[in-house]
């Protein structure tokens, strides 16, 4: 099975490749420059050499995208975020001589906007804003593969928890007893264990039972305060420190909304399609992750 992956050296990409070691897969990785992080069996391509690739891909897995929370959202930063998602997806589609049979593309629950009000499934109208526009355009770029009769699966990700990624940045403050509630703490915290992300992608590779757009979040609804309390409990630390809203706004500007707001997102469509989550409670997920940290 011939598979092209963008974002192969990122958090999800590295974990996915660790589960794709068998000879069943012939893997091509789209990279900006040659990476020593990738196994020697993986064929590394840049966007120029991709246009010279003359094979029929079974699957293109679209994981690329600059970290949305790593820097404040200046006009320049917003453009970088857009280009690393929307523009790159279009460039890949235009570069490929032969359309892939299937595209599995990431999006995010930022599609629903930054809000605490309401409950969102895949059909619920979004609130507007930068996150919505970014995710909306990213999904549209992936859906343009349908013009060539390609089957497209889109996953709207919540906060991906694992040994690395977002949790890696939170772990040290919590270990030092400095973790806790952000603003009022009543914003929703839609999360997913990295292993369930990988299982969903692998299921999509191997079968056609998943098609269209799905929220890839755990079925348990929790608030940010619930997360802080549970993570502190798992680490055996207090969660007494509260970070005020005004300070986050002062530090991060518009991007502070990622921390102070959060939609309540449903996973019922994915469950209805037959996907069984391995980790359905935050505590079980965090205990599992800490075992390997």
UniProtKB/TrEMBL annotation:
Superkingdom per UniProt: Bacteria
| Domain called NAD-dependent epimerase/dehydratase: residue spans | 3-207
Known InterPro entries for this protein? DUF1731, Epimerase_deHydtase, NAD(P)-bd_dom_sf, SDR39U1
Question: Residue ranges of the DUF1731 domain?
Answer: 243-289
Gene3D superfamilies (alphabetical): NAD(P)-binding Rossmann-like Domain (3.40.50.720)
Known SUPFAM superfamilies for this protein? NAD(P)-binding Rossmann-fold domains
Coiled coil (UniProt feature): none
Which Pfam family would be a valid example here?
Epimerase
- PANTHER family annotated for this entry? EPIMERASE FAMILY PROTEIN SDR39U1, SUGAR NUCLEOTIDE EPIMERASE RELATED
Which protein family is it in? Belongs to the NAD(P)-dependent epimerase/dehydratase family. SDR39U1 subfamily.
NCBIfam families, per the entry = yfcH (TIGR01777)
According to UniProt, the name of this protein is TIGR01777 family oxidoreductase
Q: Please report the organism this UniProt entry assigns to the protein.
A: Marinomonas sargassi
What is the phylogenetic placement of the source species in the record?
Answer: Bacteria, Pseudomonadati, Pseudomonadota, Gammaproteobacteria, Oceanospirillales
């Amino acid at each position: 099975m011939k598979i092209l992956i963008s974002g192969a050296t990122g958090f999800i990409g590295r974990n996915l490749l660790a589960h794709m070691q068998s000879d069943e897969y012939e893997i091509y990785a789209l990279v900006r420059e040659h990476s020593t992080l990738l196994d020697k069996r993986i064929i590394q391509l840049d966007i120029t050499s991709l246009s010279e690739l003359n094979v029929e891909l079974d699957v293109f897995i679209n994981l690329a995208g600059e970290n949305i929370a790593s820097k404040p959202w200046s006009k320049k930063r917003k453009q970088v975020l857009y280009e690393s998602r929307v523009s790159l997806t279009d460039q890949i589609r235009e570069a490929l001589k032969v359309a892939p049979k299937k595209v599995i593309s990431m999006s995010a629950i930022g599609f629903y906007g930054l809000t605490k009000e309401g409950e969102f499934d895949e059909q619920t109208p979004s609130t507007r804003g930068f996150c919505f526009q970014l995710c909306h355009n990213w999904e549209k770029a992936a859906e343009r593969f349908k013009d060539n009769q390609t089957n497209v699966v889109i996953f709207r990700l919540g906060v991906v928890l694992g040994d690395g990624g977002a949790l890696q940045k939170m772990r040290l403050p919590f270990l030092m007893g400095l973790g806790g509630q952000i603003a009022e703490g009543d914003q929703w915290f839609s999360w997913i264990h990295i292993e369930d992300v990988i299982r969903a992608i692998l299921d999509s590779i191997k079968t056609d039972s998943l098609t269209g757009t799905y929220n890839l979040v755990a079925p348990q609804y929790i608030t940010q305060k619930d997360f802080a309390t549970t993570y502190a409990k798992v680490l055996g630390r207090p969660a007494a420190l509260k970070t005020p809203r005004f300070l986050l706004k002062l530090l991060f500007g518009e991007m502070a909304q990622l921390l102070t707001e959060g939609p309540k997102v449903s996973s019922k469509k994915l469950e209805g399609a037959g996907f069984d989550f391995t980790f359905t409670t935050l505590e079980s997920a965090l205990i599992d992750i800490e075992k390997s940290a």
